Amino acid sequence: MSEAETVRRGKGTIFLRIEICKGCSYCIDFCPTHCLEFSREFNRKGYHYPVLARPEDCTGCDLCGLYCPDFAIFGVRFKDLEKLKPPQGPEPLIPTRP
Amino acid sequence: MSATEAPGFKLGVDIDNPVMPYLRRDRIPHIWCPGCGIGTTVNCFARALTESGLNLDEVAIVSGIGCTGRVAGYLNLDSFHTTHGRAIPFATGLKLANPKLKVVVYSGDGDLFAIGGNHFVHAARRNMDIMVVCVNNFTYGMTGGQVAPTTPLGPTQTTMPYGNFENPFNLPFLADACGAVYVARWTVYHVKQLTRAMKEGLNKKGFVFIEALSPCPTLYSRRNRLGDGVDQVKYYKEKSVIKNDANTKDVALGFQSEIIVGKFVDRERPTWLEAMNEHLGRVLGERYTPYGVTHVED
Amino acid sequence: MHADPRGVLTGVHFIDGDHAACEGALAAGCRFVAGYPITPSTEVVERFASRIPTVGGVFIQMEDEIASSIAIQGAAWAGKKVMTVTSGPGLSLMMEHVGLAAITETPCVFVDVQRGGPSTGLPTLPAQADMMQVKWGSHGDYEVIALSPHSPQECFDLMIKAFNLAETYRVPVFFMMDEVVGHMTERVVIPPAEQIEVVERRWTRKPPGEYRPYDTDESLVPEMVKAGDGYRIHITGLTHDERGYPAMNPTAQDAMVRRICAKIRQHAEKLVDVRMDGVEGAEVVVVSYGITSRVAGAAVAEARRRGLKVGHLRLVIVWPFPARLVRELAPSLKAFVVPELNMGQMALEVERAAAGRTRTISVPHAGGTVHEPEAILEKILEAAR
After folding, report:
1. Would residue A3 count as lying in a domain?
2. pTM for the full model?
3. With CB atoms 3.0 to 4.6 Å apart as the test, which of A63, B228, C107, C137 could cross-link to C166 if both were Cys?
4. A93 and B39: CB-CB below 8 Å?
5. Across the interface, do B191 and A63 touch by the CB < 8 Å criterion?
6. Residue-wise pLDDT tens digits, C203-214
7. C140 and C30, same structural domain?
8. Domain that residue C375 falls in
């Protein structure tokens, strides 16, 4: 979905670096509100990645971020959006097709 | 490359994953397999670092060799990736040479307890002031799934092709018996508890041991028809029983058995340096200046 | 800069080589020693353990030599000058960490009080049979520096040089004593601190962010920082790039291995340290080092008394080997005679450097005692014929 279509629903949301996700499904299985689902699409490495299927249920609790072994996803409460710092340093390398 | 549900906030521009400042961003993505839990323990460790209130310039991390041995290389701390099994004696030298440092050893079960077992027991005996995090995945991941000193009885490993018949270590019992002042076991399912244990460990003086059970989907789970990484974490969820203060001799692990987790030991004992300063101060009197207490020797 | 007076026991002493080596280390600024008991080296750490509490530093007896040889490297990265002390069997256990010190470029001193081998061998009796092990013992390609003292006074003097070289070149430096030098008691003069020159570590002046752990200038020796200074360094035993990050490719391997070898090889001429006695115009030159040089001196004197033109070349720095010097001497000689307490180790280097321009006559000895001077004399006479 494009950014333009999104609106703030629920208490929070997730951010995801799609291309470093390895599709382990930790975030999907252990999300306390079960608001994530696998994408239909593949990322460049051939993994399905999580999408926020039920944004109204997301609390931004960041348990997905705590579970994510690839540092790909994290959650944030809308009220904390301004507090999260902008990145410092290079963007993680996007894997290329083998 | 990113997905966001917050209009006006672009990932990597306006906002970033809170774990990123703790990582060497230019080394991400990491080498660990899909479903491996090591990265999850790193998340817990990053949050524990924040909560500990420590000055990160004075935290050093030392790893041995293996999958978990790569943790040092991803953390944005003074980090040392040493030889196989020898992270603890390296950490001992680092700590004693600059007692201001908080020194964390982060390594795997094979590294810490097979080749490095002797160093573990002696560092615990001395109550060396270091925190040891052992990511226990019951196998040698980096070399291809060989039997480890933690492999439960039963499962197949490449060097136990007919199933493991060697008795494994009960790691918390070992650490307890050797004199560790803080002993806890959690799994990567227990992210909050693991974070809290790491935070407590970072703020504890003396030899701290934290065992984190973590799936090795590629070489342990799949080979033993246990499904993916996430299936192992679900097993941790279903079969874990929290028993704080459990007697460590009762917490041994069997193949897919019940897992007793919790904080088992939390006690006080003088560290090696405290004992040295106390003893030499008493014996040598004014001739002795306590080491690493008032100032750090240059 | 001058030595820290707290570590310098100025005066005239009557002590053995092991004790003198310890005093040399203290004078050089060594403030962290990790060791494991092993005959005939233990007196070095025993003395350090008794001296260090009032000097200010740490001694720890580790659980084995493997631990000792890496604990010192941890301490080096926390800023200390460091040393470990052992003998043959312990040295064998330390070999993996010689490689770690070489690849991570960690300044450290390994003292080896040599005894008869292989294996447990002759714990209380001398040998010089670890000379090739310290050069080649760890896997992979790297360079080291090794010094060989022949008296307790040199155990003191050369130990300071050993530390200075370790700091200058960031390599493991071996201090190749033997049981006889270690246990021989002689007069040792320790000068005042202000007469002892010590080399401080080459700390970077670059701020965090600009500093890269393995960037080098023409010296090929990178500047160092220590843990806790805010640089957030990554140091690994894997092949790495200038940032210290693992780099698993042949290009990085080539650059790194060539540099850690070249940083010693390009300075090899500066690192020549020999004592020459009557080498000019000689027909035969005896090449020796350590305790054997004292026995060889008696044989050389007797040969000269008999009218032979015999020179004596004593290696003080054994590695890197003074190959150019030996090569240039070779054409005018009838032979080199190389006595040593092994079955012919440095004789191979002499032979290699001489490159067929003259003969090399080895005078091997399996250890357990020193040579009889007559055995060396016999070979000098054979060489002169």
Report:
1. no
2. 0.96
3. C107
4. no
5. yes
6. 999 999 999 999
7. yes
8. 274-384
